[in-house]
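Appendix B, Record 12. Input sequence as logged:
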Amino acid sequence: MAAGPTVKQLMETYPGKIRRVIKNYPYKYRDFSRIAAEASLAARDQGKYWEMHEILLTRSPKLDRASLIAYAGEMGLDVKKFTESIDSGRHARDIDRDLKLAESIDLYNTPTFYINGLQIIGERPFDYFKKIIDEQLKKTGM
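Logged structural output:
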């Protein structure tokens, strides 16, 4: 799921019952999408994935290399390690794997959500997701 108030609300509403899994899907037509994906994974290496993820969402489209490095500094990351990671493409294999997964399931839009295999394309209000999650939890006996 994408970050934002709706997802945060859902995670708080269903503690231990749902999980959020994010896959990288950098658009080939967006200038900085690939390096932004690298940045999130470089931040993950230092235990700050979600913090970087939130910054990437809130500060987009300012996701050029210099901005990403500045964000890493703001977050208290080891900037040298972070920079080496994004410059080397250390996580290229992970990103490419996620791209192949997206292609294999004909996923071409972000955000796209899956709830027990049900595909939901685009942002939706909290109540929309809540209704689906409640139905799915009822089906599974949770």
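The mean pLDDT is 91.
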